[in-house]
Design brief:
The complex is a heterodimer of chains A (about 160) and B (about 775).
Chain A: E1 2-8, E2 11-17, H1 23-30, E3 49-52, E4 55-58, E5 71-73, H2 87-94, H3 104-117, H4 123-129, H5 141-150
Parallel strand pairs in A: 1-5
Antiparallel strand pairs in A: 1-2, 3-4, 3-5
Chain B: H1 15-20, E1 36-42, E2 48-54, H2 56-59, E3 64-69, E4 105-106, E5 112-118, H3 121-129, E6 132-137, H4 144-148, E7 163-169, H5 174-182, E8 186-194, E9 197-198, E10 206-212, E11 217-222, H6 227-239, E12 246-249, H7 265-277, E13 281-284, H8 287-293, E14 296-297, E15 300-308, E16 314-326, E17 353-362, H9 376-394, H10 398-405, E18 412-413, E19 419-420, H11 425-435, H12 441-450, E20 454-463, H13 471-476, E21 485-491, E22 497-501, H14 510-522, E23 529-532, H15 550-577, E24 584-587, E25 590-593, E26 599-601, H16 602-610, E27 625-630, E28 639-648, E29 655-665, H17 672-691, E30 722-725, H18 745-764, H19 778-785
Parallel strand pairs in B: 1-13, 11-12, 16-17, 22-23, 29-30
Antiparallel strand pairs in B: 1-5, 2-4, 2-6, 3-5, 7-17, 8-15, 9-14, 10-11, 10-13, 15-16, 18-19, 20-28, 21-22, 21-27, 24-25, 25-26, 28-29
Helix pairs in contact in B: 9-18, 14-15, 15-16, 17-18
The chains are: A alpha+beta (about 160), B alpha+beta (about 775).
Bound molecules: FE2/S2 (inorganic) cluster (2 copies).
The site of one FE2/S2 (inorganic) cluster (FES) has 11 residues of chain A, from loops.
């Protein structure tokens, strides 16, 4: 076990990890940030998506030790400063972009990364960018709609509420 | 949209706020003081004699608390099956013992051989690797036809064969059906496979057992759609713990789709082991483990024949199906290919004679049980495919052939034992034609052809039986449980309402939709109503969420309990206003006396119930809390029509889904936004089944599709925006809300539309192809094109 230190959601944190401890395990078990989820063991599902030094990362693909000194952001750090839902989070609620909520933290983190790179993505660009995030509940319809709405586009012409 | 946020309003989901901020509480988010971790050592062979399991070295490894093997569970009950099917000769099905940990033999890859409980998961896993297992391999039984052949290796030595049951339905109609085929002007025959699937909710299963030595109480935290069912099955049949000493908690559940209905060995293990080691025991399934331990779905091989007269009226239907049970009978497995499948074979059509034969087969594979739709997708797929094939053979329009044979008068008693209370199949088909702009298809096809692409259109109908189920009926059919639902409505002194329900959301948004109903009934804001579910300690005995039953059965129980509340509240109001009870009206959260301007607020009445100073104590008790159990009089019958358009590249066989439309009739709707979402998700799973997903075993019983690298889950690029509509509404006639349920429709209705569309595209391209088995991967399509 070694002692690690990093910035998570703007706060400096420390915790213990073995060499083989994954970042996602460290976040969930050591830091008790259970919003980041584990949906697979082959780096396919994206439920564990976080940002490390501003870049989207599947936290199951990285050892905790590799994040030593890094700036990590998780779903717990995505709301507005006053605790209200951010634009992306609000768009997911407004457009029913989640059902069971298990993929949702990863979807929100991926969306934030996408909109940083591409502030007005087309439907095709959104779908392409979600390649690494699996949702079993929504059929993606309302996720894509939520993301386009979060980017400020008018989604009223897309079928359904 | 109603302005008050009651029935019919697309209220935003209140549960979303916690899910969007990382504050959900799923089972894996729970950690108990002093918790240990279990790692299961699972069989890597499909069939073999377990000669020895040597744990000596492993037991001395760091962190190991205790190791369990099949010996430890020899005296404990097996994992029970909740449905006993009687075969066509009047005999009950063959039912093997399903041990919690393998004993004597292993029967599928993934079966538990030993369980290591340790201080950390890593230590448990390390120690499991040091266990020495000696297995004498036996030939694996994988293919169903081979399993039924004379002299086949048996999965269970103590059974007479690998046949679980041979079910005929309706057996008395068999000869008449055969005679109708003799007399038919045309017979269409289709052989098909309903591919085996893995449900894959994104949250893997988790179980935590906890035991309180001071009181002798056990608690199980688990990822379940129905905690009371787990408590009953595990307590009564496996571990012998009475309900009052056992609590089952299912907190936020990350999707289920059926696979979290069943009682699993891991749940019984964690509960048992927690008592044995007197510490909490936690198990978290990895995705790889989920593939070899979650019950799979579908896996039917069917021959279906449709008889028509000279005017193209359907005269008879005959099917012959083999249904894979896997190695053991999972909780509801026997009911899926029988009562959830045979009773739906009439579909939307007035076929007068139907005979369904199903042989359920044991194989050395993971148990197979209900997956979204459960039996109804299998029925719909074969029926809608054979009708499409018949239309093409006869050279008639597939939609016209369907319309000609639609049931148009209700109630309608089918020849397969169920009676549809209401529906309007013409209306949903009309709506579909409009939604999908079918009149514009020819132009779209021509435009695609100009780009060298084959555009195809597939249409189908579906009917499902939801709102499961009338208890006395299912009892006669072999269910070992009642299928009512319950609700306790507790009104607090200051007027807030808590509804404790046996239904349990695993993504359906009950915390939002259920309050809409109460809000409407009383005339208060939905946020004055809270839903409590998922914990046997604070909900009345209820059967949980599956079979699109929550609003139809659980919602009905809630309405019944709320009616009792309102009746009692009216008595209190009458007393307060010194009026006759019969004159009291409740509207917009206030009680008034008809024909006067007297009124008391909801909150005044609720306060009086708990502070009964001025109260009719001689007539009624204080307090305002009522429970109702609702047992449905019939199933509900949602129905609809679906259309899919594909564009196929004739060079490669690759195709894309260009459009998907659904016109559903769910009866009355509580929250349209949630209903749309349910249909979207269902369609994506149906598209997944029909073009991507396939659970494949090799001849040795090894799972070839055991991860997301090999099992193709639908991704965002595989599906288009869906066009869904539920404006056709024929309310259910026998439940108080007139609701039918919407959770499974998308998965039931969509596979035939997609396959019909691909066949259509290929035939338009001049290929003489009448069928391709799902999933329609580019390679399968391309191979079919090569003849
Ligand atoms: S848990 Fe990291 S990608 Fe699935
Ligand atoms: S909302 Fe359930 S997996 Fe996406």
């Amino acid at each position: 076990m070694t002692e690690l230190s990093m910035t998570v959601n703007g706060k400096t944190v420390t915790g213990k990890a073995e060499g083989r401890t994954l970042l996602v395990t460290f976040l969930r078990e050591e830091l008790k940030l259970t919003g980041t989820h584990v949906g697979c063991d082959t780096s396919q599902c994206g439920a564990c998506q976080v940002h490390v030094n501003g870049q989207p990362v599947k936290s199951c693909t990285m050892f905790a030790a590799e994040a030593e000194g890094a700036d990590v952001r998780t779903i717990e750090g995505m709301a507005n400063a006053d605790g209200s839902l951010s634009v992306i989070q609000q768009a997911f609620q407004d457009h029913h972009g989640l059902q069971c909520g298990f993929c949702t933290p990863g979807m929100v983190m991926t969306t934030a990364a996408l909109l940083k790179e591409n502030p007005k993505p087309t439907e095709a660009e959104v779908r392409e960018y979600l390649e690494g995030n699996i949702c079993r509940c929504t059929g993606y319809h309302n996720i894509v709609k939520s993301i386009m709405a979060a980017s400020g586009q008018d989604v009223s012409a897309i079928a359904a509420e | 949209m109603p302005a008050d946020g009651g029935i019919g309003a697309s209220n935003k989901r209140r549960e979303d706020v916690r899910f969007l901020t990382g504050k959900g509480r799923y089972t894996d988010d729970i950690n108990l003081l002093g918790q240990t971790y279990v790692h299961f050592l699972r069989s890597d062979v499909a069939h073999g004699v377990l000669k020895s399991v040597d744990v000596a070295e492993a037991a001395s490894m760091p962190g190991v608390v205790k190791i369990f093997t099949g010996e430890d569970f020899a005296e404990v009950g097996g994992v029970p099956c909740g449905w006993q099917v009687t075969d066509r000769f009047g005999e009950v099905m063959q039912e093997p013992r399903h041990p919690v940990i393998a004993h004597g033999k292993v029967r599928h890859v993934g079966e538990i051989i030993a369980a290591v409980v340790a201080e950390s998961h890593a230590e448990a896993r390390d120690a499991a690797e040091a266990i020495e297992v000696d297995i004498e391999d036996l030939p694996a039984v994988v293919d169903m036809r081979a399993a039924l052949a004379e002299g086949s290796t048996k999965v269970h030595d103590d059974l007479t064969s690998n046949l679980c049951y041979d079910w005929g339905f309706v057996e008395e109609n068999k000869e008449a059906v055969n005679a109708a085929f003799e007399a038919a002007a045309h017979v269409t025959t289709l052989e098909l496979v309903n591919n085996r699937l893995v449900a894959n909710p994104m949250e893997p299963r988790v179980a935590i057992g906890d035991y309180a030595p001071g009181t002798g109480d056990s608690t199980l935290y688990t990822t379940s759609q129905n905690p009371h069912v787990i408590r009953l099955l595990m307590g009564a049949f496996v571990l012998g713990i009475p309900e009052h000493k056992l609590r089952v908690v299912a907190p936020d559940v990350g999707g289920g789709f059926g696979t979290k209905i069943f009682h699993y060995a891991e749940e019984a293990f964690c509960t048992f082991a927690a008592k044995a080691v007197e510490r909490p025991v936690k198990w978290v399934s990895s995705r790889s483990e989920a593939f070899i331990s979650d019950a799979h779905g579908r896996d039917h091989v069917t021959k279906i024949e449709l008889a028509l007269d000279a005017e193209n009226n359907f005269t008879a239907l005959r099917t012959d199906t083999m249904a894979n049970m896997g190695a053991y009978l999972s909780t509801f497995a026997p009911s899926v290919p029988t009562w959830l499948h045979g009773t739906l074979m009439a579909g939307n059509y007035k076929t007068p004679l139907i005979y369904v034969n199903v042989k359920a087969v044991f194989t050395n594979t993971v148990p197979v049980d209900a997956y979204r739709g459960a039996g109804r997708p299998e029925a719909t797929y074969q029926l809608e495919r054979v009708i499409d094939k018949a239309a093409r053979e006869l050279g008639v329009d597939p939609i016209a052939l369907r319309r000609q044979n639609f049931i148009t008068e209700f109630p309608y008693a089918t020849p397969v034992a169920v009676e549809y209370d209401t529906g309007d199949y013409v209306a949903t088909m009309d709506k579909l034609e409009e939604l999908a702009d079918l009149s514009g298809f020819e132009a779209r096809r021509a435009e695609a052809a100009a780009r060298g692409k084959l555009r195809g259109l597939g249409v189908n109908c579906y009917i499902e039986a939801c709102g499961i189920a009338p208890s006395n009926l299912v009892g006669q059919l072999g269910a070992r449980a009642g299928l009512y639902e319950s609700a306790t409505v507790r009104v607090n002194a200051t007027g807030g309402v808590v509804v404790m329900t046996g239904s349990h959301s695993h993504g359906q948004g009950h915390e939002t939709s259920f309050p809409q109903v109460i809000a409407d009934m009383i005339g208060i804001a939905p946020d004055m109503v809270e839903i409590v579910h998922g914990d046997t300690a604070n909900t009345p005995m209820g059967m949980g969420t599956y079979g699109s039953r929550s609003i139809a059965v659980g919602g009905s129980a809630m309405v019944r309990a709320a009616e009792k509340i309102i009746n009692k509240a009216k008595k209190i109001a009458a007393h307060l206003m010194e009026a006759a009870e019969a004159d009291i009206e409740l509207k917009d959260g206030a009680f008034s006396v008809a024909g006067t301007d007297k009124s008391v607020a909801w909150g005044d009445v609720t306060l009086a119930a708990y502070v009964p100073h001025n109260y009719p104590l001689e007539d009624i008790e204080p307090g305002l809390e009522e429970t109702a159990f609702y047992d449905p009089a019939n199933f509900t019958y949602p129905s609809g029509a679906y259309a899919c358009e594909v564009e196929l590249d004739p060079e490669t066989g690759h195709f894309t889904v260009e459009a998907f439309c659904a016109a559903d009739d769910f009866g009355n709707i509580i929250n349209p936004m949630i209903v749309d979402g349910q249909v979207h998700g269902g369609i994506a799973q149906g598209v997944g089944q029909s073009m991507l997903e396939n659970c494949v075993y090799d001849s040795e019983g090894q799972l070839m599709s055991g991860s997301y690298m090999d099992y193709a889950m639908p991704r965002a690029t595989d599906v288009p925006f869906f066009n869904v509509d539920h404006s056709c509404q024929t309310p259910c006639t026998h439940n108080p809300l007139g609701v039918k349920g919407c959770g499974e429709a998308g998965a039931i209705g969509s596979p035939p539309a997609l396959v019909n569309a691909v066949v259509d595209a290929l035939q338009r391209g001049g290929h003489d192809i009448t069928h391709i088995d799902m999933p329609l991967s580019p390679s399968r399509v391309w191979q079919a094109m090569q003849g």
